[in-house]
What we know:
Layout: H1 3-36, E1 38-42, E2 57-61, E3 73-76, E4 86-93, E5 97-101, E6 106-109, E7 112-113, E8 133-134, E9 139-143, E10 161-162, E11 166-175, E12 181-182
Antiparallel strand pairs: 1-2, 2-11, 3-4, 3-11, 4-9, 5-6, 5-8, 6-7, 9-10, 11-12
Amino acid sequence: MNEEQQNRREYKQPFLYDFVSIVCSALIVIMVVFTFFVRFVGVVGDSMNPTLYENDWLLVRAINPKGYEYGDIIISTQPNAFNEPIVKRVIATGGQKVDIDFETGDVFVDGKLLEEDYIAERTTTQQDVQFPVTVPEGCIFAMGDNRNDSTDSRSSAIGMIDERYVIGKVLFRVLPFDQFTYFE
């Protein structure tokens, strides 16, 4: 082997090592970020229409230091009758009292009427939970924006959502691209 071939061989080994090291490091960083900080989640079903639609893809912040509050859109993996993660909007949190007048479609939290400009139609469908109801500490009362076509905390099939099962708060709709949306 001449000197030039030896130099090429010695040059390729560090390059290959550096390349593999960079790719592995990048994969580890991506796995950590998508495990602990953000996730992508797809929407299944029509319960969040008109805000979200089937097959929308969402970017979810996994760590929420200030907790969840009214209006947040959350993803929950709490075991439920559908055996799938659910996407719902927070209506009330631990200690708050929820009441729904199914004749007028009005939702009240702690006696105050909610201004719900995001819903498809007023809440007229009653499920098997009796109102008024007080949300237990550490839980969330959540409903879909398509109130009359949503199984949510009004039903024992979903019930109150234990905050330990909330994988995060929706930050963005990323797909479809033409409907990219930031959720406050």
